[in-house]
Amino acid sequence: MHAEAGLKKLPMSDTPGSSTAALSAGLLVRQATGGDLEAFEELINRLRRRVYGFAYQHLRDSEEAHDLAQEIFVKLFRNLARYDSERPFEPWFWKLAANTTINYRRKRVPIPAEPQAESADPNSTMQTHDPQLVEALSQLDPSYRLPILLHYYADLSLEQVSQTLSLSVPAIKSRLHRARAQLRNSLAEAEESENLR
Predict the structure, then answer these.
(1) Most buried residue, 43, 83, 141, 151, by CB count within 10 Å?
(2) Report field, pTM of the whole predicted structure over 0.70
(3) Which residue, among 72, 77, 86, has the nearest Cα to 26 in the 3D structure?
(4) 129-197 adopts what CATH topology?
């Protein structure tokens, strides 16, 4: 949970002159698997914002989201040797992130009834989202919320979401369709109730 302290000690490598700046994720993973901490750090730098946002969408608490993001990166480091370099990295990574999130929520975090806007990360893109949308997303069943977050927030293709969740592409399309319909209904109800005030 407090792996952040260890990761903060690593030097930053996302500077323009960095030798890892132009490397693919697959190559960075192979280098990190071989013990190259700079490659692992670059991988973390590339994923950090999306992982934090993914965690925040699930937990709606800034501190818990930071802890979960760190736990995801610790699990990534521990499981790098299990990654099959013949397969795309992102679906494998997001599957690991999704499983870590599910386990984290089971063990530690009751979902707050209200979003905690005051504790949101000031550098986060979450502040630009409509609070009603965030609330509607939080009310979705996880089987619908996860495909929405992976496809729209983590920018994974339908095929990558399919691989990540071990479902067929038509099943992902169906879940996305149902989730969007539920979100539309929730947002319409929220707007209606706000207009009645």
Answers:
(1) 43
(2) no
(3) 86
(4) Arc Repressor Mutant, subunit A (1.10.10)
